[in-house]
């Protein structure tokens, strides 16, 4: 294709695609964890809270997962032998979420609040894909597996199976099975949980007895926090949460308070003090990695050196943080740990090396995922495919502040779960 001379000689700024981001023409999209930080802080955080996922804040959600699998592996096994499990899970999840929902307070033990708070009647179908039918499957099932309540084949542990067998009121089984089976065979029909519960009081009674069972709670408590040190840490977190205003709570606050508490030699959680220090080392460094990535995204069109200049003013503090992070020992010589260690080495040397390194790390990570990168370079200039996610001013402010940490490390989660498992601390 030949360009006429005036267009060919016009500056690049006359070409619209090269001057402004066009989402329709860029094959990338916003994505979770674009720097691969999750496996790092998760590994460190699980030294303190080994089983809970950060989205798990309701004991009833764990109980619901166990009940759904117990029914599937037992009373409903023949029904599901020729039917898919996931549609069944969706129907059961919708039912128990609705049962646990308190429409008066719009609160209570329910993950799918937004879906359930819509104008009635609430209806559940096999094909539903909203929060209300994915919350338990996505967040709570993983916690059950890590705690040994479920195994890799989705089989319940023997103690859990025996307990639910004793607790579940069998007169509800047939009515519940008929309702579920009908919808599985007519997927578009669905059912209204309220109508089902009104028409089958035995189901309502069985659910009430199960979720109120102290035997079920006791087994979950043993599996999640059976270790004395883990239980003591959870109690401390619950006390810190109780004694702190909601707008002042942060992971950093939890860590600072726990360091004081765990310094007492007679405290059962004292042996977790080194793991708590690892959280500090890890979080401070990962914050810089995330800020550096967001800074580069906000500076598309600028050079790598220009982006590095904004980090250079914090060079002394960043070097100390990088050295501290290097003291962490990863679980294996390769993988994400080695990649983060290399970034730490670059941060300890030169800001420009660090910016180049984090862009290359992001590109390699996106290649692994089969996606185009959000950041790249052309002739030493930063190409930010989708533009900024955080503004330049916001990143600058965060870099200059002693701000709260963002990753969580499950400490706020275990603080919420402790009273549900043990009562008020």
List the SSEs and their pairings:
Layout: H1 5-9, H2 16-19, H3 38-45, H4 59-73, H5 77-80, H6 85-100, E1 101-102, E2 107-108, H7 113-116, H8 135-146, H9 158-167, H10 173-185, H11 193-199, H12 201-211, H13 214-225, H14 228-242, H15 251-262, H16 273-298, H17 304-312, H18 315-325, H19 335-349, H20 351-369, E3 375-378, E4 381-384, H21 392-400, H22 411-422
Antiparallel strand pairs: 1-2, 3-4
Helix pairs in contact: 3-16, 4-6, 4-8, 11-12, 14-15, 14-22, 15-16, 16-18, 16-21, 17-20, 18-19, 19-20
Quick recap:
The protein contains 22 helices and four strands. The chain has helices spanning 5-9, 16-19, 38-45, 59-73, 77-80, 85-100, 113-116, 135-146, 158-167, 173-185, 193-199, 201-211, 214-225, 228-242, 251-262, 273-298, 304-312, 315-325, 335-349, 351-369, 392-400, 411-422, and strands at residues 101-102, 107-108, 375-378, 381-384.
Descriptive report:
- The chain has helices spanning 5-9, 16-19, 38-45, 59-73, 77-80, 85-100, 113-116, 135-146, 158-167, 173-185, 193-199, 201-211, 214-225, 228-242, 251-262, 273-298, 304-312, 315-325, 335-349, 351-369, 392-400, 411-422; strands at residues 101-102, 107-108, 375-378, 381-384.
- It is mainly alpha-helical and 425 residues long.
- It folds into 2 domains: 59-222, no CATH class; 227-412, no CATH class.
- A two-stranded antiparallel ribbon has the order 1-2.
- Strand 1 and strand 2 form a beta hairpin.
- The radius of gyration is 26 Å and the shape is globular.
- Residues 1-26 have low confidence and may be disordered.
